[in-house]
Design goal:
By secondary structure, the protein is an alpha/beta fold. It is 48% helix and 10% strand. The chain folds into three domains: 210 residues, no CATH class; 175 residues, P-loop containing nucleotide triphosphate hydrolases (Rossmann fold), CATH 3.40.50.300; 71 residues, Helicase, Ruva Protein, domain 3. The strands form five sheets. A six-stranded mixed sheet has the order 7-9-10-11-8-12, with helices on one face. Strands 1-2 form a two-stranded antiparallel sheet. It is elongated.
Length: 482
């Protein structure tokens, strides 16, 4: 125990001296309000210096060494000045308390300043082995100490057992740091305590804290969705005027929903968020409309990968969806469920365990979507496939239809504009009047016409090219044209 106390004293001295030197070197904020990479790294270095002092004091108090009467909360963390670093800006925006801030410093340390955790290597002199309560793991490829959930729990509750609840909150999947994948508690083998998993910082957030480059969540089982984007603009969206009126209502909510909920105090009467169902045949613009709603209002739209959400194992589907909703709850994202009737279809009579599980899943989804504070759009080809109990909970039901002649004419012009040259024989008015086609089919025709022109070695498209391509498109549905 004596060696541990001497090491403690040396560590405290090292931290205090180093903090003084670093403070003298602290650069001033950039006049433009942007922090440099050097400032960003320095902020992380100072934060882990504070962590080192906290670790020293926690263990000192725990082992009743000299100075144990002091408490780690007496140690002031580095000050947070807006614009001084990206890390400081994030802490201010997230409004983290001291316990949460300490947790974040703990996961930053192995990469930025691994020696800050070396004190956890001390041995328990009574049994001549590491302290079990310190948690942590080591690896042959990394000589330092890797913190686990147990390490965080020791720092917070070793001297204040009631603060175990703070650990539970920070490691909960709904906590902002976990939900936004800033921190992660790695899974452990069956039978091991969950908190024995390594507690780490995500590479994408470390990269952001240093460079300011904000990477979007990676498509994975923990985030089963990918960003939905389109090069088109709102002005290029062509829909029947009745459909467009309903879409404009959704767009108005996205633009003014916050005002409505807060300033008009509608939050006292309705649940937050907005829920819509887009139904209609394929190619009528459901996916494009969702993408443009996000683009025109400055929101990211994430298309949920149903194949990664649905699991054959009972309980796994709920977990996959919960991770997704938890991550999105802190963002102004739009969640787009394509072919939604696969998950949100009519419930069956509970005649088997599988039926009961499917019905339970539907009920779970209803609750998650109702409680979600953001925007959810569910697309389905057939509205009749949707469960009525489900659709009643939606603010908007939008029925997309095959566009009429006027809309089709605009779609034909929009599709071919700027792509190729049109021969004088091309008559889009005649084509729009004669052939009932959705926007997606018209794009398929454009692709085929362009390939035909390329094979001829030119950029000109003729009326016959368009008619031949329409025939090919109709053959997919066993339709013939003369």
């Amino acid at each position: 125990m004596r060696g541990l106390a001497e090491s403690n004293a040396l560590t405290e001295s090292h931290v205090l001296n180093e903090s003084h030197v670093v403070a003298d070197l602290r650069p001033t904020s950039d006049p433009s309000g942007c922090s440099s990479a050097e400032q960003n790294i320095l902020a992380l270095y100072l934060e882990t210096g504070w962590l080192m002092q906290v670790i020293s004091q926690v263990i000192c108090s725990y082992l009743k060494q000299e100075g144990h009467e002091h408490h780690w909360l007496e140690i002031e963390p580095p000050s947070l000045e807006p614009g001084s670093s990206l890390y400081a800006d994030c802490l201010i925006e997230w409004q983290l308390n001291t316990f949460e801030r300490l947790a974040l410093a703990l996961v930053i340390a192995p990469t930025i300043r691994p020696d800050a955790l070396d004190y956890f290597f001390g041995l328990n002199g009574m049994i001549d082995r590491p302290f079990t309560e310190f948690g942590g793991v080591t690896d042959k490829a990394f000589g330092g100490f890797l913190p686990t959930g147990q390490t965080l729990n020791f720092l917070l509750s070793a001297n204040n057992p009631e603060w175990h609840l703070h650990t539970r909150n920070i490691l909960c999947s709904k906590h902002r740091l976990m939900a936004e994948q800033v921190t992660e508690l790695l899974p452990v083998e069956a039978g091991l305590p969950r908190w024995s998993g390594v507690y780490q910082l995500s590479d994408q957030w470390l990269n952001y804290f240093i460079t300011g480059e904000r990477k979007r969540p990676e498509h994975s089982t923990s985030f089963p969705a990918h960003l939905l984007e389109t090069p088109l603009s709102w002005e290029e969206l062509v829909l029947d005027y009745r459909v467009m009126d309903k879409i404009e209502e959704i767009r108005a909510w996205l633009a003014h929903g916050k005002t409505l909920m807060e300033e008009w105090q509608l939050s006292h009467k309705v649940k937050p968020g907005y829920r819509a169902v887009f139904s209609g045949p394929p190619g009528t613009g459901k996916t494009l409309t969702a993408a443009l709603l996000g683009k025109s209002t400055g929101r990211d739209v994430y298309r949920v990968d149903l194949s990664m959400v649905v699991s054959k194992y009972i309980g796994e589907t709920e977990k996959n969806l919960s991770r997704l909703f938890d991550a999105a709850s802190y963002k102004e994202w739009i969640l787009f469920f394509d072919e939604g009737d696969a998950l949100f279809g009519k419930r069956t009579e509970a005649s088997s365990s599988n039926d009961r599980h499917a019905n339970q899943l539907t009920g779970y989804l209803l609750q998650k979507i109702e409680d979600f504070p953001g925007t959810v759009i569910i697309a389905t080809n057939l509205k009749s496939n949707m469960d009525e109990a489900f659709t009643r909970r939606f603010q908007s039901m939008v029925q997309f239809t095959i566009p009429g002649p006027e809309e089709r004419l605009q779609l034909w012009h929009n599709a071919f504009r700027g792509v190729c040259e049109l021969d004088a024989s091309v008559d889009f008015t005649e084509v729009a009047e004669k052939f009932e086609m959705a926007g997606g089919q018209i794009i398929n025709v454009l692709r085929q016409c362009a390939l035909t022109a390329i094979r001829r070695g030119e950029r000109v498209v003729y009326q016959d090219d368009i008619l031949d391509s329409i025939r090919q498109e109709f053959r997919k549905e066993n339709k013939l044209i003369v």
